[in-house]
Amino acid sequence: MTHRKLGKKTLALVAGGLMLMSAVASAAPTELTLEESIALALRNNPTMKIAEADRDKYSWAVREAQAGQGPTLSYSHKDARAKAAPSTLVPNPSPVNDFDNTVSLSLPIYSGGRVDGAIGKAEYDFKAADLGLAKTKQQLKLDVTNAYFKMLQTRNLLQVKQESVDNLTAHLRNVQAQYEVGTVAKSDVLRSEVELANAQQSLITAQNDFDLAMASLNNVVGLPLDTEIKLKEEMKYEQSKLTLADGINFAMQYRPDVLQADYALKGAQETVKVARSGFLPTVTLSGANNWTDSKFPGSKNRNWSVYLTTSLTLFDTNLTLSKVKEAEAGVVKANEQYRQTKDSVSLEVRQAYLSMKESEKRIETSQVAVAKADEDFKIAQVRYNAGVGTNLDVIDAELALAQAKTNYIQALYDYNTSKAKLDKAMGVAVKQ
């Protein structure tokens, strides 16, 4: 290969690489609100597809059970060839062909409650599966909300760490300037440099936490993990007027877990009805049309029949009784699970509510602390510049300010996530 060709190829590769880098650099970040993030997750997250498929499965199970009370139409065709044994009258009989066609219709009149019970249970199972879809939506909303606020929290903490680095950098320049004119000792410079290095280490950690939070949000909403996201919202405090009693009452009426447990209990009761049908008779109406002939397809000779069949099991070695007792034990279990679910939901609501209220109080106190710490830092800077304060005063004041801001951000994060947990614990429906 000539040097000219090699040079052209290298130039083309470089140009292509620059274009790719330019395209990547110019790609605008994806801007998302919390509601947009939730909508993305509802469309993309595999758990939604699984819950929807589960609901469809139980929908068809209802139709399957309902088919048990409808008529059944069947058709059969038989081709036969037979030869009778020789007899005195017919010493050498010839083979005989028989072509038979039968159309039969069967309609259950009474099943002893078996079909009705099966339909009832299937319908309750479907309702429970439908609630399972709602439950999946609520859990997914909580996951997205936690991930969204986690990214907001790490972004705000990153800003606090950056402010600390900026403040300590400016303070170090001031200390160095005073050291050069001989007004402060070398130890002040060294201590300021150490504090700045520590702040820079914290800034690196905060940046990594932010990147991880962004990847987590991408994962839950179904975007590529390296997608750059820009959040449109800020963490804010909106006071909730909900009382604990109202929250628990709402959960008892609308929480999917409670309603699912109720349907499971009702389904278990239908299972008892199915089991007890073994003690009762069944009545079936049937009819048939039959055509038979010695020539294919066998449609010459026609006869028909209609009959009503009543059957009752007189003895089955306690098989039916065993099924009934098994089903009744299932009712006892389902009833206790229903009671247990209500207690668990009530506890979950209480925990989320009290956590929200505790975070609410911390927001109020940390807001005051931030304002006072900011004023204290400014005073420490002025005193140090005037020569009446120490380097340690400035560093301590800056650390106190950073901690106060961190406490405030943490309180806001805890409040918003506790509020989201409370919505999920209560069973607040997800808008879609």
UniProtKB/TrEMBL annotation:
Q: Coiled-coil intervals in this record?
A: 324-376
Does the record's keyword annotation contain Coiled coil? yes
Q: Which Pfam families match?
A: OEP
Print the keywords alphabetically.
Cell outer membrane, Coiled coil, Membrane, Signal, Transmembrane, Transmembrane beta strand, Transport
Does this UniProt record's set of keywords contain Coiled coil? yes
Give compartment(s): Cell outer membrane
Q: What is its main location?
A: membrane
- Secretion signal span: 1-27
Q: Which family does it belong to?
A: Belongs to the outer membrane factor (OMF) (TC 1.B.17) family.
Under which name does UniProt file this protein?
A: TolC family protein
Q: Which organism is it from?
A: Anaeroselena agilis
